[in-house]
Amino acid sequence: MAGTVAHRFPIVTSDLTIEYPPHGASPAHVAVRGLTLRVAPGEVLGLLGESGSGKSTIARVLSTLSVEPGPDLRPVITGGDALVFGVPLRGLSRRKAAKLGFNIGFLAQDAGSTLESTSTVAELVAEPILLRDRHFDRRELEGLVVTMIDAVRLPLSILGRYPYELSSGQRQRVALARALILEPTLLIADEPTAGVDVTVRAAITELFAELQRERAFTALVISHDVAVLRAVADRIAILYQGVLVGLGTIDEVFDDPSHPYVARLAESFHDAH
Ligand SMILES: Nc1ncnc2c1ncn2[C@@H]1O[C@H](COP(=O)(O)OP(=O)(O)OP(=O)(O)O)[C@@H](O)[C@H]1O
C-alpha cells in the first residue's frame, strides 16, 4: 500500500525529521520535526513560515541538493523519511541523488541575482543541458534555449546579454528558464520573488502560475508572502519552528487556525485584503 501511494505522489514525507549535524562549538540543530505531507501530481504546494522555520532546509533535502558535496553544512534526515517519485531520500547515494535530480528543477533563493556574471543569457539557459550532456547537439540546443526564453516572455534580443545588463525581473525570468530547461516534473522554488523589484513581483508570480498551468509540473513553492501563494498554490503548509502547524487551502487553514501563529497570519492577511 505504502509503495502505491509513494509512487503516485511526487512527494511523500512521513514523520520527517531533519537535522544539521554538530559543527565546531555548535551542537546538532533539529530544523524540521515530524513532518508528514503529500504533494499530488500537478499540485502546487506553498510552504509558508517565518524566517528560520525550516522552509529552505526542506527544499534542500527534497531537491536532493543536500546530498551534493559543498562548502555548507548539509542537513541530514535523522527521523522518518521523504520519498520523491517513490525514491526514499534517507541515506540516498550521491549517484542515485544525481539521477533523481534530473527530474527536479530547483530555483534557489536569490537565483536571479546570483547568476554567473561572465556568462550570456544563452549560455546560462543552456548550461543545465550541457552539464548533463556536453556533446548535446548545438543546433538543437539553440532551439531549446530560444523556446525557453520565449516561454518566460523575454525578447530574443536578450540572448547575448550578461546578467548585469538585465533588470531584476528579467534576471529572475532567466533563472526560471534555467530551472525549467530540462523539463522537470517537479519544481522546487525557494522564494521565487525575493530579490525582485516590488513593482514586478506580481508579473513574476503570474508567469510562474502560467508556466505551471502550461507545463503541469508539480511544485513546492516557498514564500513568506501569502499573496504570492494565494496566486500560485493549490494548498499551503505552514511551518512554525520546524513543525507543521497548518495544511490545506489558504481558506481552510486561515478560517480555522489551530495554532496561534496561524491565527496571527490569518489576521494580518485578512486585514491587508
Ligand atoms: N548550515 C546550517 N547549520 C546549522 N543550522 C542551520 C543551517 N542552516 C540553517 N540552519 C538552521 O535551521 C533552521 C531552519 O533554517 P532554514 O534556512 O530552513 O529556515 P527558513 O524557513 O528557510 O528561513 P528563511 O526564510 O530565513 O530562509 C534555522 O534555525 C537555522 O538557523
TrEMBL record:
It comes from the Bacteria. It holds the Pfam family ABC_tran. GO terms for biological process: transmembrane transport. Residues 11-266 form the ABC transporter domain. One of its GO terms (molecular function) is ATP hydrolysis activity. Keywords: ATP-binding, Nucleotide-binding, Transport. PROSITE patterns: ABC_TRANSPORTER_1, ABC_TRANSPORTER_2. CDD domains: ABC_NikE_OppD_transporters. Belongs to the ABC transporter superfamily. This is ABC transporter domain-containing protein. It comes from Microterricola viridarii.
